[in-house]
């Protein structure tokens, strides 16, 4: 069988967390990811077609790690709720040079995440998505 490099897709993002319930307060309750199941130190959430697995274990977060970006419907409200649930703001919501509003936040385990304000699909984007 020949390996086809363009056949890979993101299936799961694993986030190590020190406290699973605290992390669920951010990822489920603030970002609105749906909890599909939970077993021991693992919680599986769904973000569109991508699974996010929270894994309770020793954490060594840092700014050089991979940053996941979540599109949220109301950026300012999501950032406020993030802070209320124990997260921190690294960069507040601002218009970026590439044309989207983004905030950079840190979860309680010091992971960096980007939040962007979801924009409605344009007619050209919708036709590409339907193709």
Please write out the topology.
Elements lengths: L11 E6 L2 H8 L6 E6 L2 E6 L2 E7 L11 E5 L2 H10 L3 E8 L5 E6 L5 E6 L5 H8 L1
Parallel strand pairs: 1-4, 5-8
Antiparallel strand pairs: 2-3, 3-4, 6-7, 7-8
Architecture overview:
- This protein is of the alpha/beta class and 131 residues long.
- It is built from 3 helices and 8 strands.
- A 4-stranded mixed sheet has the order 1-4-3-2, with helices on one face. Strands 5-8-7-6 form a 4-stranded mixed sheet, covered by helices on one side.
- Strand 2 (34-39) and strand 3 form a beta hairpin.
- The longest helix is centred in the middle third of the chain and has 10 residues, at 75-84.
- The two termini are 28 Å apart.
């Amino acid at each position: 069988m020949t390996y086809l490099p363009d056949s890979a897709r993101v299936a799961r993002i694993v986030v190590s967390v020190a406290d699973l319930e605290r992390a669920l307060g951010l990822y489920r309750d603030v970002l609105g990811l749906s909890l599909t199941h939970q077993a021991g130190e693992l919680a599986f959430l769904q973000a569109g077609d991508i699974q996010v697995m929270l894994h309770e274990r020793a954490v060594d977060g840092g700014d050089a790690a991979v940053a996941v970006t979540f599109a949220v419907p109301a950026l300012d409200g999501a950032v406020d709720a993030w802070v209320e649930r124990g997260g921190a703001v690294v960069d507040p919501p601002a218009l970026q040079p590439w044309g989207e509003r983004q905030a950079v936040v840190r979860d309680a385990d010091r992971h960096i995440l980007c939040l962007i304000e979801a924009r409605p699909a344009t007619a050209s984007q919708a036709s590409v998505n339907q193709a």
